[in-house]
Design a protein that fits this description.
By secondary structure, the protein is of the alpha/beta class. The protein is 50% helix and 18% strand.
Length: 400
């Protein structure tokens, strides 16, 4: 056992400018002494409670990491090898999980391994390798898998579905991968990310698998699904949830339309589009669509055709009140989630593997959901109206 901690000497060292914590900090000898004294007391208690003959048998040494720095811990042993220390267990190399929590917190904010290592060195005086940081963040993977497979509610009034794209290293080259995200609105009006999926490319066939997974995890009904204009998307939804109404995102449709319009015509064309999606009723919107075609149909027939072909799903929101319209006419809620993803990944051109991307996005979701404590605006009024629109599907769930 080391000599007793010398408080007078420690005071002199502090006055001379020696740091409290970190490597060779003033407090490290005290921390070491306290821990070793506690372990010795544990062993003494163990020997008293052991019926067979047993006694102390020296110590073993290992490096312990603490928020205040590192020190060499002398752990006492017993001759019969039956002593199991509790304060610092046999294979434990840290006095607390504070450092790991700090690593995960920094990683969840989008920091790279080098930046994390520098932060930890500044805070604790500990050099942490990229491999060690990876090992710490990999501990989140089992939790991620469990989260991906967790049971879901039977019914979600509104679900938004969208995709975002990344580059991931595969077979010594970087390939494009698609992250499929599903955001749900539950009966209390709170948002929840229901699923996160990864595949090669975005397509209706993979979305069919995503929807099947939601169904297998307990979702039996979705009232309204809000999606972009991906071809085959409404059909994929209807294949798994035949009663679900599919609203195509108006904002996506506007953006897609303007891509086909000449620069000199964009401002006027956009002005003529506005009366369609801002109409008070579907009938009014159809009158505005007819007017758009009369003005621009000869020049931009392909754009007009797109609105006509998708009109059933584009105009769905007109049957509802303004409280419901504002919730479903766009995929903005899920795009907000993807904006958070981009903030986390903006400094990373590509990812070394799928897990490195998924664990970062998962931690980003956990951070985002901490802010989703309140139901969406005017949800009480909106859900009461949905109960009227969908009487046989919401009454029992709402206890009406």
């Amino acid at each position: 056992m080391n000599d007793t901690f010398d408080f007078k000497q420690a005071l002199k060292e502090i006055q001379s400018g020696k740091p409290f914590t970190g490597k060779d900090g003033v407090l490290m000898p005290l921390i070491k002494q306290l821990v070793e004294s506690a372990l010795t007391a544990e062993l003494d208690t163990h020997l008293k409670e052991t019926p067979e003959a047993n006694r102390k048998n020296g110590t073993t040494s290992k490096t312990i990491k603490t928020p205040s720095g590192n020190f060499e811990l002398a752990t006492p042993r017993d001759r019969n090898c039956t002593f199991e220390p509790q304060l610092v267990k046999k294979h434990q190399t840290s006095l607390s999980d504070e450092i790991e929590r700090k690593i995960l917190g920094l990683f969840a904010l989008g920091n790279g391994y080098r930046a994390i290592s520098e932060h930890i060195a500044d805070l604790y005086g500990i050099e942490v390798s990229a491999a060690a940081i990876s090992a710490v963040t990999d501990k989140i993977i089992p939790e991620l898998r469990e989260w991906q497979q967790r049971p879901l509610e039977k019914l979600y009034p509104v679900v938004w579905l969208d995709a975002i794209h990344y580059k991931i290293r595969e077979d010594s080259r970087y390939v494009g991968k698609t992250i499929y995200t599903v955001l749900g609105l539950d009966l209390s009006g709170h948002k929840e990310v229901l699923g996160l999926y990864l595949s090669e490319n975005e397509g209706a066939n993979f979305w069919l698998g995503v929807l099947t997974d939601l169904h297998n995890r307990g979702v039996s009904d979705i009232l309204i699904a809000c999606v972009d204009g991906l071809k085959g998307f409404p059909e994929a939804i209807a294949a798994i949830f035949p009663q679900t109404e599919t609203q195509l995102c108006i904002v996506h449709q506007i953006r897609a339309s303007l891509r086909y319009v000449a620069t000199k015509d964009k401002k006027a064309f956009a002005a003529d589009l506005k009366p369609i999606y801002c109409a008070e009723s579907r009938e009014g919107a159809e009158i505005a669509l007819d007017a758009l075609e009369a003005t621009w149909g000869a020049k931009y027939a392909v754009v007009i055709k797109s609105w006509r072909d998708k009109w059933v799903n584009l105009s769905l929101f007109f049957r509802y009140s303004k409280e419901i319209r504002r919730v479903i006419y766009t995929t903005n809620p899920i795009e907000a989630v993807h904006r958070q993803f981009r903030k986390l990944t903006k400094t990373k051109g590509a990812f070394p593997n799928e897990n490195s991307l998924l664990k970062l996005l998962y931690l980003g979701i956990l951070n985002a959901q901490k802010k989703w404590t309140m139901p969406i605006q005017n949800w009480g009024l909106a859900v009461s109206q949905l109960a009227i629109y969908f009487p046989n599907r919401l009454d029992n769930m709402l206890g009406l």
